[in-house]
Amino acid sequence: MKFFLDTANLEQIRKAASWDVLDGVTTNPTLVAKEGREHRDLIEEIGRIVSGPISVETTSLDADGMVAEAGQFVDWAPNVVVKVPMTPEGLRAVATLKARGVRTNVTLVFTPMQALLAAKAGAYFVSPFAGRLDDIGHVGMDVVREAVEILRSYDYETQVLAASLRGPLHVLEAARVGVDIVTMPFATMEMMFKHPLTDQGIERFLADWRRLQDALKAKRTTNRS
Ligand code: E4P
Q1: Ligand 1 mean position to 213 CA, how many Å?
Q2: Helix orientation angle between 63-76 and 88-99, rounded to the nearest 10 degrees
Q3: Is there a single domain that holds both residue 212 and residue 129?
Q4: Do 183 and 204 have their domain in common?
Q5: Which of 106, 109, 177, 204 is most exposed by smallest CB count within 10 Å?
Q6: Is the CB–ligand 1 distance for residue 107 below 6 Å?
Q7: Is 15 a catalytic residue?
Q8: One domain for residues 162 and 219
Q9: Is the CB of 6 under 6 A from ligand 1?
Q10: Nearest-angstrom CA–CA distance, 102 and 25
Q11: Measured from the CA of 30, which atom of ligand 1 is nearest?
Q12: 77 within 8 A of 44, measured Cβ to Cβ
């Protein structure tokens, strides 16, 4: 199972990369807009930090425009995966890009049928959005699970990338349904490391260790005198 970070923030990407659990990055226009920098500069910089796939999203609505944008993105970093929306035009772009050897991520997927269509078109990744479905009262993870089941039962090579995850429990559920990849906000990845008993345990082990060192030191001093 691969862990991607859902951000365009360089500081967060550097920090997660330093933990050695980061397999890739997903960005979108909203995340890029938060950084207030040129798209190209930002992606080039991310490419210097991360060697795994970096999803970069198109903003055109027609297939030709998406393909043209993709042509630029792949020059920014060798590991770019072009993100296109789940529309007929997006899937036309997927087929064209696949024929040119460019990997794609079909985004904004909210039903298993959309995931199946993306796989049929030849998407490299398909991104069902769990959190946004939860937000409107649906069980987002059901769509993720059904996408995994359907794509596996027909042996599609398309990888299911669980997206729009809002916390560690979403990551846990995605792991249990057997997704290939999860993409998560930095705060979620950070939270996954933490447990109060881990911190207390370290504190207690260190205190006991220090007590032993002090006792041994005192013993050595007594023996010498
Ligand atoms: C994934 O590729 C998307 O960028 C992302 O997961 C969307 O998440 P949100 O619903 O929290 O905006």
Answers
A1: 50
A2: 50
A3: no
A4: no
A5: 204
A6: yes
A7: no
A8: no
A9: yes
A10: 17
A11: 12
A12: yes
- Residue 133's CB: how many other CB atoms inside 10 A? 19
- The pLDDT tens digits of the residues spanning 145-198 come to 999 999 999 999 999 999 999 999 999 999 999 999 999 999 999 999 999 999
Tell whether the model's pLDDT for residue 225 goes beyond 90: no
Query: CA 69 from chain center: how many Å?
Result: 22
Which residue range(s) make up the domain with 36?
Answer: 2-194
CATH number where 24 lies = 3.20.20.70
Residues 6 or more apart in contact with residue 14 via CB below 8 angstroms: 49
Indicate if 101 and 140 belong to the same structural domain: yes
Number of domains in the chain: 2
pLDDT tens sequence across 106-159: 999 999 999 999 999 999 999 999 999 999 999 999 999 999 999 999 999 999
- Are residues 48 and 121 located together in one domain of the fold? yes
> 222 and 111: one domain?
no
Contact 104, 83 (CB under 8 A): yes
Nearest to 104 by CA among 90, 88, 87, 89: 90
Atom of ligand 1 nearest to the CA of 27: 4
Give yes or no for residue 188 CB within 6 A of ligand 1: no
Residues 119 and 67 in one domain: yes
112 and 138 share one domain: yes
